[in-house]
Amino acid sequence: MMHELMAAWAPLQGVALALALGLLIGVERGWRQRDEAAGTRVAGIRTFGLLGLTGGLAWEAGRLAGPGLAAVIVGLAGATLLIGYYRAAVRETELSATNTIVGAMTLAIGLMAAAGQGVIASAVAAVTVLVLASRERLHAWVDALDEAELHAIARFGLIALAILPVLPDASYGPYDAWNPRQIWMVVVLVSGLSLAGYAAARRFGASKGVLITAAAGSLVSSTAVTAALAARLARREGGPAVLIAGIAVAHAVMLTRVVVLVGVLAPFALAPMAVLIVPAGLAAAACAGWLLWRAKDDTTESDGPPPVKNPFDIVPALLLAGLVAAMSLLGRWALDAFGNQGLMVVLALSGLLDVDSAIVTAANLTPGTLAPAAAALALAAPIAANTLVKAGLALAVARGAAGLQAAILLTATVVAGAAAYPLLAVLFG
What we know:
Layout: H1 2-32, H2 45-65, H3 67-91, H4 98-114, H5 118-133, H6 135-144, H7 147-163, H8 180-204, H9 210-235, H10 240-265, H11 270-294, H12 314-338, H13 340-353, H14 355-363, H15 372-398, H16 400-419, H17 421-428
C-alpha cells in the first residue's frame, strides 16, 4: 500500500514544486508592485504561482495525453501574458517587459520542475528572484559605469564565456605540453581577480587609505603596488610605516591569491604548498600589524591609489596565454632533459616575470610527473624569486632606511617559507 501511495504521489511532487517556485517568484513581483492601485497590476503572487502550476500541469498533461495538449496549455498561458503586457504598455508611459519575461520563465521553471529537473528549476528560480530583488543596486551600478569599464566587462565576457567553452580540453604539441582550455583558464582566473581588484580600488579609492588600495591593487599586480608605494617612500609622501605596511599587505594578498590558483589549477599540490606559503603569509601579516601598531598615531593617507589600470586589454591577455604556453613547453623539455632540478630552474625564472604562468606550467604537467612535495617546491621557487625581485625593487626605488626596511620585510617572508621546509619533508617526504 505504501509503495502504491508513493508511486501515486511521485508525479504530484514535481507539480507541487512548480507551484512553490512560482509563488516564490510571485512574492518578489507582488512586493515590487505593492504600491500600484488595485486592478492595475499585471501579475502578482497569485498569477506567478498559477503560472508555475500551469507549467507543471502542462508537462503532466503532455505526458498523459501527448505533447499537443501541453503546447496548447503553454500557448494559452503565453498569450495571456502578452495581452497583459499590451494592456500595461497602453496604460503606462514607461515600458518594461520584465513581468512578461519573468512570466515566461516561470512557465519554463514549472515545466522543468514537473519533468524531474527540480534542482535546476529551483536554482533558476532562486537566481531569478535574486536578480529581480537587486533592481535598484543593479541600476545604480550600471549608471556608475563609464565607457572603459563597460568595455572591460564585455572583454571579460569574451574571455570567459565565448572563448573558454569552445577550447578543447586535451593535450597538444611537443611533449603534449599545451592544453588550450587549461592555458586559457589562467587568463580567465587572473582577469576575474583583476576585475575584482579594479572594482575594489574604484569603490574605495584613496580615502580609505593605503591598505585598502594596496590590497585591491595587488589582485592586479603586487609588483606594481610595491613599486608605487616605494616611489611614495622615496618622495616622503605619507608615513613610512603605513606605506611599508601597504607593501606587506599587498604581498600577503598575493600569497593568498597564489593559494587560490593552486587550489583550482593544481589541487594535488595544495596541502604541501600551504606548509610553505602559510608561514610566509603569516610573516607578512605580522610585519604589517607591527608597522601599523607603530603608526597608530599617524593618520596620513595616500593622495591617490596605486596605479591600478583597467586590466581588460585583450593584448595583455593574449600575451599571458602565450607566455604560459611557452613556459609549459620549456618546463616539459627541462623535465625531460634535466629532471626535477631543470624544471625548478625554469619555473623560478618564469616567476621573475609572472607567478601565475609558473603555476599553470606546473599544473599542466602530466598527473603523477611530480610528487606533491616536489610540486610544492617547484611552485614555491617562482614565488620566492618574484618576492626577491620585489625586495630589490623596493630597495632600489625607495632607497635609504625605508627601502631597506621594506626589502628586509619581503625577504623575511621568503626565510619564513624556507624555514618550514623541514616540516614539509616530515609530512610529505
